[in-house]
Amino acid sequence: SILLSTELPERQQIGGDKSRDSVMRSAEMDEKGFSNDRYVYLFDEVAFAERNVGGSWDAVRGLLGGKGANLGRMASEGLPVPYGFTVTTEACLDYLKQDSMSEQVWISVLEALREVETRMGKKFGADVDPLLVSCRSGAKFSMPGMMDTLLNTGLTDANVVSLAKATNARFAYDSYRRLIQGFGAIVMGVDDDLFEEQLKNYKAMAGYKSDLDMTVDDWKAIVVIFRTILKEQTGSDLPQNPLVQMKMAITAVFSSWNSERARAYRDATGIPHELGTACNIQSMVFGNMGDTSCTGVAFTRNPSTGENRMFGDFLPNAQGEDVVAGIRSCFDVHELKGGFAQAYEELLQVGNRLEQVFRNMQDIEFTVQEGKLFMLQTRDGKRTARAQVRIAKDMVRDGLISKEEAVKRVQTGDVDVLLMPQLDEREMEQARSKSLMLARGVNASPGGAVGQVVLDSKKAEELQSQGKDVILVRQFTKPDDVPGFFASKGVLTAEGGATSHAAVVARQFGIPCICSASTIIIDMEKRCFTTAQGTVVREGDVISLNASAGEVFQGPISTVDANFDRERDLQTILDWGDEISAKIYTRNNKEMRGLKVLSNGDSGMDSAKARAFGAVGIGLCRTEHMFFGSERLPLMRKFILSQDAKQRTAALDDLLPIQTADFEAIYRAMSGFPVIIRLLDPPLHEFLPDRDSLVRSVAKMGVSSNGLR
């Protein structure tokens, strides 16, 4: 049942068999009057939550989700966090199991909401000066953009009028249309493109270039248009009871845990499906209240390179979804010091403090409302492999983490990415000279990629299943595009900045990505895009991305192997790994060295590369592999098919200097380290062709059938 008041309900209001007293009496109460067996925690109760789960911060993250736990930690550090509370992952799992929100959970939500109202001095959804909230998902492990967030919850026809009179009418109706659009798409399942298309058409007819050109009358008109879409698609209007909005928003957030895109993301990242998501109810602060307000997303260090300098975007007079969605071109976060100098300096200080607290590079969302900075969330930032290595190394230098922690943070996949091929520099220079560079954009996720252009995620999946390499090209990406990311070699978007959805997801998965290539015009009907020079690139045409520099080229460009010698930061991390593994420990009363890494190696080149990568010996030298080369294989076949000792000796005489030279090169590369050799025991099928070809070949050689046998 939906409760129509934040007053704690009587039995008849709930419509169930348990009153508040009977619900709460079954559990022990804490000093604030809240149950210890709880589904809801206020932000400043993170220490209490930690105590309830046995003192484990990992368990706190499992209960409150990463976002809720970190909001609590920021609040406990005295940082400027808008007040709120977290509905736990246990409540989510209970909802998913029962397909409804339990009475106990809802009562707990109302209790916490009453506390927030007291703290903020406002009434949720009141007709005058209303408290408005955001409803944000937040699982234990960060899943950027995979689940749902609803802003401005609590706005109604009545209080939007008073909000317009009390603040800024344009801001009020802009906020209202956002609620209608978000509620329609997230809660009621309306295709978000229907709203975006109507807004796009309205601006085009009015001759507007961006949302900033929209007036209060324009936003009022959009409110009417959006409500019409809502009614046509669902038969319902936006609920005018604020508590109905909140309850439906919370259940929508919980349901988004099992959305197709969220499940695909968890499959790709190995996140368990049984964890559930928390829902964070947070007092709204507004970045769209005029020229003294803005919103942004920033990383405390560069997530592409690892440079120790804040990196991010912001938009003046906007809400956070505008930055993440990439529907407007953003400003570099350091340009804040122009119009928001005080907030900029405070943001830098907060970023440094967060790194001290969490001992990791942070991805933060912030809003400046009429000059005052507010922190909306923080989490460990997704980053490229190169950034991961550099940040780990630098944080050891800065005393934030140990060498052991740094080595643990760098995964084998990070090493693989750093050794992946890049686009050939010579061919790129030739392409530039021939005017084959189609566009430039933001180098959101580095690397090189070559493939056929596809304009939607389903097409990307279809062609990838046929073994074809594709580049996903979109105006901007949404969470529903994630399956297309996994199917693509690279991603190119016309809009969005370095902190857009496309950039964040691509960096996490090591997918080369270029954003904000604003000179390309995508035509979905004709399935092509056009460049500023007038070049038409159709779906299926091949393009190449030099994502490290933000360059898009027409046609294929070859790739070249990475240069390990240049990877100084990686070599430092690997050296630390050797140092740690080399420590002496005692086992069965004997002192022993830790783990050693030896390599397979059958040639001097292999052995030299193994040493460069840190191997301390050759664990297996397979001598039969020394004879696979095009010049050596005929000599080996001659030895195998020799008819007598004389022929065999002659064949061996030809092979001996070759093998001797190989061993000399191996020993030189491994000077001072062991080489373990497997003596020649050749499986004949690896040296000889199939039987029919063999019979024909040896017949030409004059070998008798007896000799062949």
The assigned structural class equals alpha+beta
Largest sheet: 8 strands, mixed
Q: Please give the share of residues in helix.
A: 40-55%
Give the C-alpha Rg.
31 Å
Question: Outline, from the CA principal axes?
Answer: elongated
Given as residue ranges, the uncertain stretches (5+ residues, pLDDT < 50) are: 1-29
Give the strand tally.
28
Distance between the termini: 86 Å
Mean pLDDT: 88
Question: How is this structure best summarized?
Answer:
Helices cover 44% and strands 18% of the residues.
Keywords:
709 residues, alpha+beta, eight-stranded mixed sheet, five-stranded antiparallel sheet, 28 strands, 44% helix, elongated, disordered N terminus
What is this structure's SSE topology?
Blueprint: H1 11-14, H2 20-25, E1 40-42, H3 46-52, H4 57-76, E2 84-87, H5 89-98, H6 103-120, E3 133-139, E4 149-153, H7 157-166, H8 169-187, H9 192-206, H10 216-234, H11 242-255, H12 260-269, E5 277-283, E6 294-299, E7 311-316, H13 320-325, E8 331-332, H14 336-339, H15 341-358, E9 362-369, E10 372-380, H16 385-397, H17 403-409, H18 412-418, E11 422-423, H19 425-433, E12 437-440, E13 442-445, E14 448-454, H20 457-465, E15 470-474, H21 482-487, E16 490-493, H22 501-508, E17 513-515, E18 521-523, E19 528-530, E20 536-538, E21 542-546, E22 551-554, E23 559-560, H23 568-581, E24 584-587, E25 590-593, E26 599-600, H24 604-612, E27 618-622, H25 633-640, H26 645-669, E28 675-678, H27 691-701, H28 705-708
Parallel strand pairs: 14-15, 15-16, 16-17, 26-27, 27-28
Antiparallel strand pairs: 1-2, 2-5, 3-4, 3-5, 6-7, 6-9, 7-8, 9-10, 11-23, 12-22, 13-17, 14-21, 18-19, 19-20, 21-22, 24-25
Helix pairs in contact: 3-4, 7-8, 8-10, 9-10, 16-17, 16-18, 16-23, 17-23, 24-26, 25-26
